[in-house]
Amino acid sequence: MSVAALFEGPAAEAIGCEYIPVATEAVFEELWVPACGTLGLRWVPCFQSGIPITSEDLPDVIDELDRLRCWVADHAEVDTRQWWLDRIDRLRSALHRVRDVAEPDVWIG
Predict the structure, then answer these.
(1) At 104, which helix (H) or strand (E)?
(2) Residue-by-residue pLDDT tens, the chain, 109 positions
(3) Directed axis angle between helix 78-97 and helix 58-75, to 10°?
(4) CA gap 63, 46 in Å, rounded
(5) Is 25 inside a domain boundary?
(6) In a domain, 2, yes or no
(7) What domain count does the chain have?
(8) Distance CA 75, CA 94 (A)
(9) Is the separation of the CB atoms in 43 and 57 below 8 Å?
(10) 25 exposure class (CB count in 10 Å sphere: 0-12, 13-18, 19+)
(11) Which structural domain, as residue segments, surrounds residue 65?
């Protein structure tokens, strides 16, 4: 199993794809969940079970990804840091691009 962002309709058109991989289930459980706990994040841990992201949710989700990115840059193991930053950056970039879509159809899980 894996965690990924799925974009449909106008949201997919805005970013030019329908699927962005986030992490395997094992990696999400091993790396992402503990970091989210350390930071007290609310949205990102929900990616594990799956969650729709509405236009109202986007600012909070992006903010949490920004906080996670800062934590990763300072605390992640050297051998996983760049991989993790690349995954966060790709997801953040896509979410930023769908902010102007009236009703983005985004599911992360």
Answers:
(1) none
(2) 799 999 999 999 999 989 999 999 999 999 999 999 999 999 999 999 999 999 999 999 999 999 999 999 999 999 999 999 999 999 999 999 999 898 889 999 9
(3) 160
(4) 15
(5) yes
(6) no
(7) 1
(8) 24
(9) yes
(10) exposed
(11) 9-108
